[in-house]
UniProtKB/TrEMBL annotation, chains A, B:
It comes from the Bacteria. The lineage of its organism: Bacteria, Bacillati, Actinomycetota, Actinomycetes, Actinomycetales. Pfam families: HTH_3. Residues 27-81 form the HTH cro/C1-type domain. InterPro entries: Cro/C1-type_HTH, Lambda_DNA-bd_dom_sf. This is Helix-turn-helix transcriptional regulator.
Length: 109, 109
C-alpha cells in the first residue's frame, strides 16, 4: 500500500498497542473498580479463572461469545468496553504536541 | 449474578450482536467504500483471501495482530474501527421508544 507511515519517520511512529492488551486492561480495571476478584467474575461469566486472568493480561484473545459473557458478568455493555478501548488507543495514536528538531523544516541557504 | 435482565422481560431484550459480526461488517463496508476487492486488501494486509472473507462475514475471530494488519491495509486506525463497531452495537442496545402493552402498569381496581 502507498499510504504507509513514511519510513524515515518510523522512529517517531507511536507503537500501536495490541487490541487484546488494551481490552484486558479495561476489563481488569472495571473488575477492580467493582472490588471483585477474578474468582467471582469468572464464576459469574462461566469462564475459567485461568482464562479470565489471561484475557485480562492480554495473553489470550477472547472470543466474541466469551467477551460478551465477561461483560455481562461485569454488568457493562460490550459497546461501552469497546468505546473505552477505542479511546485509549486513539490517545496513544494522537499527534504529539512537540515536534522533534529533525522534523522541522531545514532553512535553505 | 444478580443484575441480569429480568427473565420475564427477556423476550423484549435486544439480541446483542456478536462482536465479530459487527467488526466484519464495518471492515467490509470500509473496503467497499474504497472500491477495493478482497484480493487487493488481503494482499496488502498479508492475510489470505479466504481468511479476510471469513472475518468480513463474521465467521472467524481476527487476532489482534491480523486485525491491525487489515486496518493498516485499509488505511484506517484500529481505534476508529472499534468506535464504529461500538456505535453500531450501542444503537442496537438503545432503549426502544415504544413500550410494549404488557409492560405498562396494570391499573389496580
Amino acid at each position: 500500500m502507498e499510504n504507509k507511515y513514511p519510513e524515515h519517520l518510523s522512529k517517531y511512529a507511536p507503537v500501536t498497542p495490541l487490541l487484546r492488551v488494551e481490552l484486558g486492561e479495561v476489563l481488569r480495571s472495571l473488575r477492580l473498580s467493582q472490588g471483585r476478584t477474578l474468582r467471582e467474575v469468572s464464576a459469574d461469566a462461566q469462564v475459567s479463572l485461568g482464562y479470565l486472568s489471561e484475557v485480562e493480561r492480554g495473553q489470550k484473545e477472547a472470543s466474541s461469545e466469551l467477551l460478551q459473557s465477561i461483560c455481562e458478568a461485569l454488568a457493562v455493555p460490550l459497546w461501552w468496553v469497546l468505546r473505552e478501548v477505542s479511546d485509549r488507543m486513539s490517545l496513544v495514536n494522537s499527534v504529539p504536541d512537540t515536534v522533534p528538531d529533525d522534523l522541522l523544516p531545514v532553512p535553505t541557504a
